[in-house]
Amino acid sequence: MPLIDVDKLVAAYYALRPDPTVPAQRVAFGTSGHRGSAFDVSFNEWHVLAITQALCDHRRALGIGGPLFMGVDTHALSAPACASALEVLAANGVEVMLATNDAPTPTPAISHAILNYNLRHHGGTVEASQRADGIVVTPSHNPPGDGGFKYNPPHGGPAGADVTDAIQAAANRFLENGMVGVRRVSHAKALAATTTRRHDYLNNYVAALEQVIDLDAIRRAEVRMGVDPLGGAGVHYWAAIAERWKLDLTVVSEAIDPTFAFMTLDWDGQIRMDPSSAYAMQRLIAIKDRFDIAFACDTDHDRHGIVTTAGLLPPNHYLAVAIDYLFRHRPGWSASAAVGKTVVSTQLIDRVADRLGRRLYEAPVGFKWFSQGLLDGSLGLGGEESAGAAFLRRDGTVWTTDKDGIIAALLSAEITARCGRNPGVLYSELAAQLGNPVADRLEAPATAQQKRRLAALSPTMIDANELAGEEIVSVLSRAPGNDAPIGGIKVTSKSGWYAARPSGTEDIYKIYAESFQGAEHLQRILIEAQATVDAALASPPAGADTMARASLAPP
């Protein structure tokens, strides 16, 4: 596919004005902030200005008066969006902490900085008026033409719907009123403002890593590691980690290219910096035999991909191994710390948690559901099927409350060092003991109306008694862990399940399925799930009869 024209993309960011009467051009916070493309008039200067002013008003209303930690990734629209946001923040008198030398900053480094300010520098007693929060300018692993804007409140993790709904509504009012009420100064004045300061995100984060990962064990075992930053915000972090902690860690590429021309195409021919996709990870997979363990992170480094000598380890496989390992090798964690997973993560985690004697906290999709539990230590780990996870420091206190691909990647080396076997081998052992599931995920186009219908599914609308020949044991529209709506439906039998939900960031819906009886049983589950979704949508969306198979299978 053709690469993006960066100059035209940035020009469109500044030149095109969103029409708030067009739904696709309004501010819309999905599971991870507002995302879109300047070419589609869904992520443009006015969006960022409006969101930032709404955020300033929100901070003022709640009495949040501490510094705002702001970082950007390496997408082409991230730097312009950061500049626009700074102009509004400075005009509103907000103290902003930008990265030294305007370096890209990973999402976990922003969360770490917020928590370090609120909890550690002030001993957990910072006054409400001095609480810090943050902005991450990133569309995560989305294609190069996209931009994204995410808010992290004082708890350090992604903002919940109560916050984002209010900010979204206020931002759209600014768009509707022609930006009346949006305060702004020039970029030069914003940079020179006394409220604009610099923060060394990299060294503050890297220096603390031994508090969450057993780096001594990795070093003693002389684990040979390879990392591909995928041209993302953590590209310069890895060399610093290797140097400071004397690790045998090779950075396979430090290239930063906003077109991401070095990426192999994802399953649908798009460029995505998705470390959980075997299609996107071909560069690292090709050289896997040079290392004992290798890994990659997405553009803002909140997701991870683990490559063993056998290839890319599916995210659910690694998550199960990480949980089994961490709860056995973290004596400083509370005995009551629970295992956090999403409703679409593998059921093998349920079996691992049960064997460990740990409570399972099952939440809807979205890492925001784990932030409070990580903050207060009631969760030892929160993990998503989409290769996002975070866990506590070794002493049982909070590390980050947002996803951290860096520590998840380094954990794979710690596991290899302390167990003498890589996570892929350990997964085989785990599956032999507790069951060997097979899983798949399907995606298809869906209109906004169809997505709303799917999200509104209730257990009473499912009239089937069996799933692929087994009795249905539960039909859920709310998550067991917190009774929050899952935005779809999950149907479970003794040895299989499926979940159907609309995407929070794209015009598609997704069907997740898993079976402990093998591939044939899995296909039966998928067929029955598809029939349920088709009925819910009344008429299948265009292209649904040729549903795309997502990134679980290698090319």
Describe the structure.
This protein is α/β, with parallel strands linked by helices and 555 residues long. The protein has 3 domains: 6-203, 3-Layer(aba) Sandwich (Alpha-D-Glucose-1,6-Bisphosphate, Chain A, domain 3), CATH 3.40.120.10; 217-258 and 272-434, Alpha-D-Glucose-1,6-Bisphosphate, subunit A, domain 3 (Alpha-D-Glucose-1,6-Bisphosphate, Chain A, domain 3); 438-549, Alpha-D-phosphohexomutase, C-terminal domain (TATA-Binding Protein), CATH 3.30.310. The chain is built from 17 helices and 23 strands. It has helices at residues 6-15, 45-62, 78-91, 107-120, 161-176, 187-192, 201-207, 215-221, 237-245, 282-285, 315-326, 348-356, 368-376, 405-419, 423-434, 448-455, 519-537; strands spanning 29-30, 33-37, 68-72, 96-99, 133-137, 146-152, 196-199, 225-228, 249-251, 293-297, 304-308, 311-313, 338-342, 360-363, 379-384, 388-391, 438-445, 466-467, 470-478, 485-493, 496-502, 508-515, 548-549. The strands form 4 sheets. It has a 7-stranded mixed β-sheet with strand order 1-2-6-5-3-4-7, sandwiched between helices. Strand 18 (466-467) and strand 19 form a beta hairpin. It is globular. The two termini are 17 Å apart. The relative contact order is 0.10.
